[in-house]
Design brief:
The complex is a heterodimer of chains A (461) and B (208). Chain A has 461 residues and is α/β, with parallel strands linked by helices. Chain A has 22 helices and ten strands. In chain A, a hairpin with a 4-residue loop joins strand 5 and strand 6. Chain B has a single domain, classed as Rossmann fold, CATH 3.40.50.10420. The chains are: A alpha/beta (461), B alpha/beta (208).
Chain lengths: 461, 208
């Protein structure tokens, strides 16, 4: 029985429209990135990557220190830090606060971390209205889907899909002009922003020495979310903390360039605490919820902990030959692509998601484009080894062991190896495609086998 | 309580003990290039224009704005610089609001919001705005059009210079926002649409 992962991958591969959509969109993002980090635009790109990596390494290696420093500085600015083990603790906190303040409407800006814990569903289950305000996320919320891509959440949908969702869910006339669809969302969400009592955002960075939350976006919905309602709640993974505001000079140069090829995103908000005396607007209450949700599981292994350096730029997705074919919804959790293939098994446990570390050609492109230099290919290999260690004594494993033993034996017996090669060449490629390797070969073309082996050619030279 | 539980887990996983000193972090990487003021002005203007904004240098921002706002509903921030330029007192410009609700309602119905900016970044075409009694957050956000008047000598080379002048922006304000071009999205079919939630039009006036 093929796994759900394989099934979904096949479905995506068979869907020509989807193939075109994924390939075009990721291709465009990929090209823009290449231009934005090129020597003309960013001559010190490699030095910045090295610096970003060193800062993240230092911050994660001393995470407890920086979390406590961040906490003290948030408190000094009149904000509150709340540690949450999991999604239940997050929603319990928000529900209690909403009840106390008599709040019913929540506006939300884009946050992968809240997707991890299905926050909207949890809040709506308890009678709160929680509205996504990033255009892509809003469309997905209406369509009841999860993000297809870390940066471009509705990458897989066309204007016609959006028109269908809007007519069905918002009861509006069919509208296929993208500008008009955007204007419609703007006017509906504008009313939500002005009426909401609570705004919930994610965070791109938590700045320890300032007690600040940094949010990067293009639409302005995160600014509205964090500034219009009287209560602002940030939900961020504990790994998001960086030591100093000055480190942003490094990270901000890398993030937007790697994500969308912009020099900077349109809006970068640096928020520390509620509005201060004299300030005209801004929230009266400021909370930062620091979420574990499996992150501490990644810390003990000195090498694998670098998975937590990720700044969610999505560059590895756009460049990955596997993601670009099988798409985002094939992946079992919110994180897709190469980074999803290393994060998900580590958050969930390798036995839960044994397919993911193998969903890679190990071409190395993901590691090459990573702005914080996470060695994704190496972690994929280590996770493969973890999966195999966990997979004890089952049939597949015995077969695999046997085939590797036969292979090893052949390789150490050159005469037999040559004979086997000759036999294979005489029966030809079709026999391989019909044999036990069919599952693999049905999706791939094999080149025709040459008439003679290299050894034979060498001898007859 | 989850605080202690999580911090304990972090420490034991990293092999650290409570309040164990940490090694020095790698030095922050702040490199400020030398660029003349004229070149900074030129770069700022070129970058804003590349983002489909309007940018120009003018010795009389009041006159430019007077003609740009004719017949429109306009709200201006309480910035003393705008007042000194004679912009806040232009006919048809509302200014001087200090109440949050009142300001929000005014911004929600205005066609244009006019602000100053604390700094601008030449190499990215960015406005830097710190929230205060003089500059509210909503004026550069709710109206569909934003006009910012920036004193020439506030144009910095880029992020590195900004963070060397403001090593900790939290000391100045609860909110610092960097604005680089008009609000935009490409969430549907990667087609660029401007003005999705924030202003779709942005004008940067470089003034004396």
């Amino acid at each position: 029985m093929p796994s759900e992962f394989h099934q979904k991958a096949h479905e995506t591969l068979a869907n020509a429209n989807l193939q075109l959509a994924i390939f075009t969109a990721t291709g465009r993002l990929k090209d823009k990135r290449v231009e934005a980090v090129g020597p003309g635009e960013l001559p010190d790109y490699q030095e910045l990557r090295t610096q970003a990596n060193a800062i993240k390494q230092h911050a994660i290696d001393n995470l407890d220190h920086y979390l406590e420093l961040f906490e003290r500085n948030v408190a000094a600015r009149g904000g509150h830090v709340v540690y949450c083990k999991d999604g239940t603790e997050v929603s319990d906190f928000i529900l209690a606060l909403a009840r106390e303040r008599g709040a019913h409407l929540i506006v939300k800006s884009k946050s992968m971390t809240t997707e991890e814990v299905d926050l909207n569903e949890r809040l709506e289950h308890h009678g709160l209205e929680s509205v996504e305000t990033d255009l892509g996320e809003y469309i997905l919320q209406l369509a009841h889907q999860r993000p297809y891509h870390i940066v471009a959440p509705a990458l897989h949908m066309t204007r016609y899909d959006v028109a269908e969702v809007f007519t069905r869910r918002l009861n509006v006339p069919n509208e296929i002009v993208i500008e008009k669809q955007t204007a419609l969302a703007r006017s509906i969400l504008r009313q939500k922003f002005l009426a909401a009592e609570i705004g919930i955002s994610g965070a791109n960075f938590l700045v320890a020495d300032s007690g600040a939350v940094v949010i990067v976006e293009n639409e302005g919905n995160a600014r509205l979310t964090t500034s219009a309602p009287k209560i602002h709640i940030t939900i961020a993974g504990i790994e998001k903390v960086i030591p100093r505001a000055q480190d942003l000079a490094t990270f901000l140069k890398l993030l937007a360039r790697s994500a969308t090829g912009q020099l900077l995103s349109v809006y970068t908000s640096f928020l520390s605490g509620p509005r201060r005396p004299g300030e005209i607007d801004g929230p009266d209450e400021f909370y930062v919820l620091l979420l574990d949700n499996g992150r501490t599981r990644l810390l003990p292994d000195k090498n694998k902990r670098q998975s937590l350096f990720c700044i969610r730029c999505g560059a590895c997705l756009n460049t990955c030959p596997v993601y670009r074919r099988i798409g985002g919804h094939t992946f079992p959790w919110v994180y897709s692509g190469p980074i999803g293939a290393i994060l998900t098994p580590q958050f969930m446990g390798v036995q839960q998601e044994p397919d993911l570390p193998f969903a890679s050609s190990l071409c190395g492109a993901c590691g090459e484009v990573c702005p914080v230099k996470i060695d994704i290919p190496k972690i994929l290999l280590e996770l493969r080894s973890d999966v195999k260690k966990a997979e004890t004594r089952d049939k597949q494993n015995r077969l695999e062991k046997l085939s590797f033993r036969v292979f090893a034996w052949l390789m150490t017996h050159p005469r037999l190896y040559e004979m086997a090669g000759k036999m294979l060449r005489s029966v030809g490629v079709p026999s391989i495609q019909a044999g036990p390797l069919r599952a693999w070969t049905s999706q791939r073309d094999l080149p025709p086998l040459p008439g003679r082996s290299f050894r034979e050619m060498w001898r007859r030279r | 309580m989850s605080r202690d539980y999580i911090l304990h887990r972090v420490r034991t996983s990293l092999g650290r003990s409570p309040s164990e000193p940490i090694p020095d972090p790698p030095p922050a990487r702040i490199l400020i290039p030398e660029v003349t003021l004229d070149a900074r002005v030129a770069s700022l203007i070129a970058r804003v224009e590349a983002l489909a904004g309007v940018a120009l240098e003018t010795s009389d921002p009041r006159a430019y704005i007077a003609s740009a706002i004719a017949g429109k509903t306009v709200i201006a921030s309480n910035s003393p610089y705008l007042a000194a330029c004679g912009i806040s007192s232009l006919p048809g410009v509302e200014s001087g609001i200090t109440d949050r609700e009142q300001l929000r309602n005014a911004c929600a119905t205005a066609d244009i919001g006019i602000t100053s900016a604390d700094y601008a970044l030449a190499d990215t075409g960015t406005l830097v705005m710190l929230s205060s009694w003089a500059e509210a957050r909503m004026i550069s956000l709710l109206p569909p059009e934003h006009i910012a008047v920036v004193p020439r000598d506030r144009i910095l080379t880029g992020l590195d210079e900004l963070f060397s002048i403001l090593p900790n922006p939290a000391e100045q304000s609860s909110s610092m926002v960097l604005i680089t071009g008009p609000s935009r999205t490409a969430d549907i079919e990667q087609i660029l649409v401007r003005g999705v939630h924030g202003p779709g039009k942005i004008t940067v006036l470089v003034a004396p």
